[in-house]
Amino acid sequence: MIKEIAVKDLNTEEFIREKVGEIQAAVGEGMAINALSGGVDSSTVTMLGHRALGDQLKTVFIENGLMRQGEPEQVAGFFSDLGVRVDVVDAREAFFSALKGITDPEEKREAIRQTFYSTVFGRIVKESGAKHLLQGTILTDVDETVAGIKRQHNVFAQLGIDPEEAFGYQIIEPLIQLRKDGVRVIGKALGLPSGLFERIPFPGPALSARVIGEATPERIETVRKATVIVERLLKNTGAFQYMGILHEDRVTGMRDGKRDFGQQIEVRCWESVDARTAPPTRLPFETLEQLANDIVREVPGIVSVTYNIATKPPSTIEAV
Ligand code: XMP
């Protein structure tokens, strides 16, 4: 049982001191690795790890082909400004070939997990000689996985998986007692710029969690284009998280006076503190209209735009 630290009980300086000590004790004189996605959790772990280990920590950004527009360059830039070197590893082919033909949501998550931990990380860890992987699993990830709602890509021990046995390295999870609000507090205290720690959450399986059905490079590109518009139009709402989702069903539409059997984007925008429960944001109708207009105009093949009005639960934040 993991002991939760609620944000009201969080002593920031003490938490950082304790975790830095634990990381140093676990890694000793060796090397550790961490994967930075640019999300709040992995960014906070990167800063914590660098404070604990300095040059003994190698930080990589895995370009899995599933990230948002311009994300690899943007994230590497943020961290180079903070004096943290990030190596970008091109693993697009490995991920897309693992996702080929898979439509089931849990199988998709499993394919990403295997590709990330076994194929891509297996190789990077072997080449670097590291024995430890630092990662930003948080309590909500564990809860939902254990409850059988969603197998988060980064949860192992709680499912009876020993990473050492399965992948050949140990995993250190310094944020596992926290929820998102607590992670933001720690990230800020570690000096992350507001542009980073205030970013909306983004899931490990990235845009493949936002494509219902097969995540092909073309379909990912479609949802990537929609995401640019959704993030542009909703960034000032103060909402917890917002996203575009590409549906599998096609619907009849019309374009230039001709029938167009097109694709559909669902927009979701959530109010939440810790992602456990979330009602949809009451967006003004003008904003919804703007979303529809821009998405239909700028994203090829989209003829329908919907807004989700269901609450979590029973909905979940991501569609996959
Ligand atoms: P759901 O969709 O389960 O999402 O309501 C709850 C929060 O977690 C994020 N999420 C993930 N984060 N790995 C992650 O690191 C994952 O596999 C994953 N799936 C969902 C989601 O974006 C939301 O903030």
What is the gyration radius calculated from CA atoms? 20 Å
Oligomer state of the chains in this structure: single chain
Q: What percent of residues adopt helix (DSSP H or I)? A: 40-55%
Approximate strand percentage: 15-25%
Number of helices: 11
Which series of helices and strands comes N to C? HEHEHEHHEHHEHHHEEEHE
- The residue-averaged pLDDT reads 94
Main sheet: which strands, in order across?
3-2-1-4-5
Assign an overall shape.
Answer: globular
User: Distance between the terminal alpha carbons, to the nearest Å?
Assistant: 27 Å
Major pleated sheet: 5 strands, parallel
Structural class: alpha/beta
Q: What is the number of strand segments?
A: 9
Heteromolecules bound: xanthosine-5'-monophosphate
Unreliable parts: none
Topology (elements, then pairings):
Layout: H1 12-27, E1 32-35, H2 40-53, E2 57-63, H3 71-81, E3 86-90, H4 92-99, H5 105-128, E4 132-134, H6 139-146, H7 163-167, E5 170-172, H8 180-189, H9 194-197, H10 217-234, E6 241-246, E7 251-255, E8 258-270, H11 285-298, E9 302-307
Parallel strand pairs: 1-2, 1-4, 2-3, 4-5, 8-9
Antiparallel strand pairs: 6-8, 7-8
Helix pairs in contact: 1-2, 2-8, 4-5, 10-11
Xanthosine-5'-monophosphate binds near residues 275, 312 and 318.
Please tell me about this protein's structure.
- By secondary structure, this protein is an alpha/beta fold.
- The strands form 2 sheets. A 5-stranded parallel beta sheet has the order 3-2-1-4-5, with helices on both faces. Strands 6, 7, 8 and 9 form a 4-stranded mixed beta sheet that branches.
- Strand 1, helix 2 and strand 2 form a beta-alpha-beta unit.
- Helix 1 crosses helix 2, helix 2 packs across helix 8 and helix 10 packs antiparallel against helix 11.
- It starts with 11 loop residues before the first helix and ends in a 13-residue tail after the last strand.
- The mean pLDDT is 94.
- The structure holds xanthosine-5'-monophosphate.
- The site of xanthosine-5'-monophosphate has 18 residues, from helix 6.
